[in-house]
Amino acid sequence: xxxLLVEDDQRIAxxxxxxxxxxxxxxxxxxxxxxxxxQAIDTAYDLIVLDIMLPGxxxxxxxxxxxARGCRMPVLVLTARDAVEDKVHGLDAGADDYLTKPFSFVxxxxxxxxxxxxxxxEPSTHLTMGDLVLDxxxxxxxxxxATIELTPKEYAVLEYFMRSPGRVLTRTMIIEHVWxxxxxxxxxxxxxxxxxxxxxxxxxxxxxxxxxxxxxxxxRS
Length: 221
Known about the structure:
This protein is an alpha/beta fold.
């Protein structure tokens, strides 16, 4: 699951991103309203966590702009503005939930899970590839009748493959999507995680998670 965090307080942004990343979410951060609109339109986010008091366009204007442009992803407002009229304004502008600062991260994470379940709708959101099944809401993985225990980063790598079936993902793409830092050509981090996944998925020969020599990896049934 990919989340856009719109927050200009670097301390809060780092705290929220760290907590959500430990839960297996991929988090992008922007610090102003104009960048928030551009990112939300250009990228298919599963959820936006939005501050109201931002440089440039404020959070309410961001909300109204996104909804007017047809962006339907859930939005959780996270702000110090706790007046009733502000909450009403935010919800009327298109927010799906409203949480005030200071906040408990446990509550924030619970609200994120609830909004992601709600945004998923009634149809099954499970990602499947043959007998491999990944549930983005519960962060669970099964192959056949066996439950696969993965670390948050292993899960994030597998989810990226499951959301891009048959697509060749380069090492750079995987690093930037999962770890969100510039790729170091000397690191074998991606290869290590692919090998871990193959072992846990009972795919030692790489027939499911295939190597595309000189390019990267792809997930194919």
